[in-house]
């Protein structure tokens, strides 16, 4: 990223707490930090003089990302989590530190309050994790004074010293009932869940009294206890007290673009954040459903115990598609807080995108000029790009996007249902689409594009050229958009020998090709989902004897999904005015759902 691009991104950073992630030219994470004010802190790396190790870090930074949190404490907890996940080379101290602690009430006849760095399924009650080991230790000791549990080994022959000091419940002296333990544990739980107002007020009064009596050492001790409580018991959003593995998906949509944020929570901690930005042509809730399904099927992510999504998302369809994984729309509490945080980050990411586009809109023509020079062509005013989508050869479709002067011309986009090709055949599919597109342009005497981009390599390039040059007798330059093993834009394939044309990843031409490739890929997948959604349900109904267009429409409008038909009885179907024999046939076609053997959403081939 150039200095100018960095300055542009710095200018739109929010003045909010959060974490910043520094990356090098290879896109590796090299440093993770936190800040009360992201804009001020990140600016200091690029606008101040540095020496020693900091200077080496700054010299290695190529670009950065950020995640907004609600409080400075949350940014600290998230920073620790991300550092342990990615192990950046410049985070020497935190990287080598031990795991931050939990407070635990043990599951035994005479329970204890202990500090531990691991969470196990042992029936214990866990609180945390906490960012400050010293504060957690002091708070543990404070609780032992106010709400003592067992502090001795139980092997005492007489009452232990801690019992005489009021820091042990006294099971070494006498038998303590289960009811008394439960009451004490309830008090500790309320305290660690944030009900500390009464105790803090009591400490404030004691601190004031000690100070008025000139007992400053005792007053300082009370002051420290108050600080420890605030550091340990303060309510947290990033660190949930529920250790269920869950993923959180949120979106924000504006001006035809959708921004999606994914928070992966494991052992109560956000271990990873993923983000996506792309043009959207349908309802954002439907786009999110498609994204989530592809997230798990195409990227090999493991399904968690629970998925959190915003209101309006079809949770029944999503759960059914993802092997009945629990999908939940939180309305209140910690789950709602973490979802709100993801939504906030989605909005900030999209606003950043718009501001960067606004600042760089004058560079679209420059990108075309760079691309034209790289391909040895005159100014490439109009570019048309094609991509195909199918699932194991079923419902094949293609899509075309058009860019003029480096900007998308959405009115000129086209969708194609493949008519002459059966199965997955990229060569034949490409030839059909190219033939249909440019035969029509010639027949209507409309202008031809200056460049055709295929989302593929030699096979699609050769197929397109055979139709254009051998069949139609026209010459339009054709290039292939080549991706690397991470499915990211890498280079172009162009020329008579299909040579690779390497584009500088920092250049405007590279980013333009990347935008075009992402755009046509998303457009093709969106169209495929629409086609398959219409065909999969209705096609099964069409195969039933006695089901005509009117009956099919009745069933589709009333039940809407295959799941609801499976749950319905023959009598429920008959109520729509359908004969019993036809209703029974419909039920026979939609038996109880079996486990899917193929993904229900389109994947790129």
Automatic annotation (TrEMBL):
Main location class: cytoplasm
Keyword Cytoplasm: yes
Residue span, GIY-YIG domain: 15-92
An annotated Gene Ontology molecular function: excinuclease ABC activity
SMART domains assigned: GIYc (SM00465)
UniProt-listed PANTHER family: UVRABC SYSTEM PROTEIN C, UVRC/OXIDOREDUCTASE
HAMAP family (alphabetical): UvrC (MF_00203)
Protein name from the UniProt record: UvrABC system protein C
Organism: Candidatus Jeotgalibaca merdavium
């Amino acid at each position: 990223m150039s200095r100018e691009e960095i300055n542009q991104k710095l200018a739109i950073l929010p003045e909010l707490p959060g974490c910043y992630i520094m990356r090098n030219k290879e896109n590796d994470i090299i440093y993770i930090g936190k800040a009360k004010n992201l804009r001020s802190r990140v600016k200091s790396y690029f606008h101040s003089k540095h020496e020693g190790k900091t200077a080496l870090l700054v010299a290695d930074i190529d670009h950065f990302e950020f995640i907004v949190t609600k409080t400075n404490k949350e940014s600290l907890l998230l920073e620790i989590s991300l550092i342990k996940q990615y192990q950046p080379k410049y985070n020497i101290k935190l990287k080598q530190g031990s795991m931050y602690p939990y407070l635990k009430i043990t599951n035994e006849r005479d329970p204890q309050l202990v500090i531990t760095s691991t969470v196990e399924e042992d029936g214990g009650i866990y609180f945390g994790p906490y960012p400050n080991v010293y504060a957690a230790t002091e708070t543990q000791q404070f609780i032992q004074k106010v709400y003592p549990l067992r502090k001795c080994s139980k092997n005492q022959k007489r009452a232990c010293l801690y019992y005489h000091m009021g820091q042990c419940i006294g099971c070494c002296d006498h038998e303590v009932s289960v009811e008394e333990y439960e009451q004490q544990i309830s008090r500790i739980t309320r305290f660690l869940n944030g009900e500390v107002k009464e105790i803090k007020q009591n400490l404030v009064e004691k601190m004031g009294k000690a100070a008025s009596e000139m007992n400053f050492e005792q007053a300082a001790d009370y002051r420290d206890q108050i600080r420890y409580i605030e550091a340990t018991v303060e309510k947290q959003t990033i660190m949930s007290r529920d250790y269920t593995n869950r993923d959180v998906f949120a979106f924000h949509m504006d001006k035809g673009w959708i921004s999606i944020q994914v928070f992966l929570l494991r052992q109560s901690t956000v271990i990873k954040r993923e983000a996506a930005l792309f043009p959207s042509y349908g309802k954002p809730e439907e786009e999110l459903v498609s994204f989530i399904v592809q997230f798990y099927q195409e990227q090999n992510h493991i399904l968690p115990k629970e998925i959190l999504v915003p209101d309006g998302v079809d949770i029944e369809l999503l759960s059914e598609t993802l092997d009945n994984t629990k999908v939940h729309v939180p309305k209140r509490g910690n789950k709602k807080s973490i979802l709100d945080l993801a939504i906030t980050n989605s909005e900030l990411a999209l606003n950043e995108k718009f501001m960067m586009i606004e600042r760089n809109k004058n560079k679209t023509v420059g990108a075309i000029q760079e691309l034209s020079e790289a391909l040895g062509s005159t100014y490439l005013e109009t570019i048309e790009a094609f991509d195909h989508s199918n699932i194991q050869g079923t419902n094949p479709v293609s899509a075309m996007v058009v860019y003029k002067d480096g900007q998308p011309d959405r009115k000129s986009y086209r969708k194609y249902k493949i008519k002459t090709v059966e199965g997955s055949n990229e060569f034949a599919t490409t030839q059909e689409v190219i033939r249909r597109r440019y035969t029509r342009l010639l027949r209507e005497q409309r202008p031809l594009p200056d460049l055709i981009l295929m989302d593929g390599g030699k096979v699609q390039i050769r197929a397109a050229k055979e139709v254009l040059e051998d069949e139609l007798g026209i010459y339009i330059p054709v290039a292939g958009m080549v991706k690397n093993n991470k499915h990211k834009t890498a280079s172009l394939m162009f020329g008579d020998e299909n040579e690779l044309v390497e584009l500088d990843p920092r250049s405007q031409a590279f980013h333009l090709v990347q935008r075009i490739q992402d755009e046509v890929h998303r457009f093709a997948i969106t169209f495929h989902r629409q086609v398959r959604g219409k065909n999969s349900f209705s096609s099964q109904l069409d195969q039933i004897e006695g089901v005509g267009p009117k009956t099919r429409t009745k069933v589709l409008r009333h039940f809407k999904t295959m799941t609801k038909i499976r749950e319905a009885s023959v009598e429920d179907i008959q109520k729509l005015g359908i004969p019993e024999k036809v209703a029974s046939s419909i039920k026979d076609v939609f038996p109880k759902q079996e486990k899917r053997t193929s993904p229900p959403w389109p994947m790129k081939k």
